[in-house]
């Protein structure tokens, strides 16, 4: 049986990745290692000395690891979905070259999305492995964190790809990273408990996808996840991923058939 057409697009991205995988693999392990070392040995000790109970009885390192995991997959997703999609349409033109073959825009998007999903999975697995090695993630709960982080990553991947395929200027990519992703990174509960913030600001934060990803990963890591809370987080992230998927398929068709 012949392979699905989308796998031909995946082969292209895999061929490119074969030349750079060593560097990205080092980053996938080195970044969490450096983050956790700095947090555990440096700032974490200072926070633990003045723990006011907002960390739910855990060390600061144990508190921050699940948040950093969700934030790491968000950043990986943006790096893999924004710039590569934009250049594939505007500069390198590999999307348009693929569109001139029997591949449909949906095939092109699906193949690239599978590659993004693989990159997110590697990042989630590497970060969880480092956290487990540090002893701040229970080996019994670590397998739950990987799919949770993966879902968080896909909730960003499809909307970002849907937007990037229509973007005409690189300034837009930089602006979104600086003024959307970085504020979410800083204020979505990654480094501190959102419950300490004023109610109006907390309500704004709690509608962001990163907060849902952080809270999902953190409750699973702590072992205090509830069925209702987990369903809310999973439903929100899954709905965002599906909505982005539908929008991306439409935008790819419009962008590559014009």
Q: How does this model look, in words?
A:
- This protein is mostly helical and 258 residues long.
- It has one domain.
- 77% of the residues lie in helices and 0% in strands.
- The protein is built from 10 helices and no strands.
- Helix 3 (60-90) packs antiparallel against helix 5 (105-133), helix 3 runs antiparallel to helix 9 (209-222) and helix 5 packs antiparallel against helix 10 (227-256).
- The radius of gyration is 19 Å and the shape is globular.
- It starts with 5 loop residues before the first helix and ends with a helix.
Quote the distance from N terminus to C terminus.
Answer: 32 Å
Q: How large is the share of residues in beta strands?
A: under 5%
Helical residue percent? over 70%
Given helix and strand content, the structural type is mainly alpha
Structural domain tally: 1
Specify the number of helices: 10
**Largest sheet descriptor:** none
Mean pLDDT: 89
Which stretches are poorly predicted, pLDDT < 50 over at least 5 residues? Answer: none
The number of E-state strands comes to 0
List the keywords:
single chain; about 260 residues; mainly alpha; 10 helices; about 0% strand
């Amino acid at each position: 049986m012949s392979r699905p057409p989308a796998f031909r697009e995946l082969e292209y991205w895999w061929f490119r990745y074969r030349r750079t995988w060593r560097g990205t693999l080092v980053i996938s392990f080195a970044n969490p290692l450096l983050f956790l070392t700095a947090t555990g040995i440096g700032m974490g000790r200072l926070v633990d000395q003045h723990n006011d109970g907002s960390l739910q009885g855990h060390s600061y390192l144990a508190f921050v690891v699940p948040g950093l995991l969700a934030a790491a997959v968000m950043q990986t997703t943006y790096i893999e979905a924004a710039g590569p999609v934009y250049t594939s349409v505007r500069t390198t033109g590999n999307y348009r070259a693929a569109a001139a073959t029997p591949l449909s825009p949906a095939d092109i998007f699906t193949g690239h999305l599978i590659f993004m999903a693989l990159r997110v999975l590697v990042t989630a697995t590497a970060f969880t492995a480092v956290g487990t090695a540090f002893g701040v993630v229970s080996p019994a709960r670590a397998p739950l964190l990987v799919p949770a982080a993966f879902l968080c990553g896909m909730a960003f991947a499809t909307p970002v790809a849907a937007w990037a395929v229509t973007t005409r200027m690189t300034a837009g990519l930089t602006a979104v990273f600086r003024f959307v992703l970085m504020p979410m990174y800083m204020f979505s509960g990654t480094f501190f408990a959102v419950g300490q913030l004023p109610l109006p600001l907390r309500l704004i934060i709690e509608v962001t996808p990163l907060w849902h990803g952080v809270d999902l990963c953190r409750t699973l890591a702590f072992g205090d996840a509830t069925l209702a809370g987990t369903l809310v987080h999973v439903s929100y992230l899954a709905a965002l991923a599906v909505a982005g998927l539908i929008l991306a398929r439409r935008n790819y068709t419009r962008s590559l058939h014009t």
